[in-house]
Amino acid sequence: MTDFEKVQNYYKHFDEKNRLRNDNSGKLEFLMTMGILEKNLPAVTDGTDISVLDLGGGAGVYSFPLAKKGYKVTLADLSETLLEQARKQKEEDKIENLISCDQVNATDLSCYKDNSFDVVLLFGPLYHLTEKEEREKCVSEIRRVLKNGGKVFASFIPHLSGSIALVQRFCWSPDQVDINTLEECFNSGKFKNLSDHGFQEGYYPASEEIEKLFAENGFEKQLLRSIRGFGYEKEDVIYKFKNKNVFEKLLELIDSTAEDKSIIEMCGHAMYVGVKK
User: Fold this and answer.
1) Which of 54, 81, 101, 193 ranks highest by number of CB atoms within 10 Å?
2) Is 0.85 surpassed by the pTM of this model?
């Protein structure tokens, strides 16, 4: 079973609020993710409210820009620390469309009624849910709270990307990863950090597993792609191009190849977009 206390403690110390602002890798991930959302979210029109559950949304990195665009956003996260940061920003910025900031475990959405949301963002929980039963419960609950035809946007860390990244951690932080931990992750996708420092309770599935998970829980795939694509670990180079046309052409090329399976599996965070049947 996932040790949710370890996950909560991790986010007490990790600066999740600024993760996508601190360096070029985060900036590119945010830029590409917002692009995916803008292309695939239902449009906000006069007289029509689009309700979004940002599940695992942390301090609201995506909740706030979506709320400012007119979406009615409910932010939910396991970390009270991050939620407090979001509540403070909501008050300071007077963001009325951020409806609430709720402490919620992604495997139990019983505080929300059936068919409550048009969209669920799942940007985080699948990084941490180590057990199959937990992932199935999470996706089943998402289906329950989504309206018919509602969309889920789910990010995950592909198996090869996550497992290979642990090789570096094995070298740099042997207190967190030993050879048995590394072997277990390559075999099962599970990462159990040996210490209380660093990323905790990881799970790295192959993209086929993610497709199957959502298909078996009543979703039809619309999109499966890498988020940063071949820009992964080349972000500093990409942001050196100050010519706007060149920069935008690079983003187009990243987008055009982002659904290639090899890129999905090897280039950091990936995203599944599905529709509730």
Assistant:
1) 54
2) yes
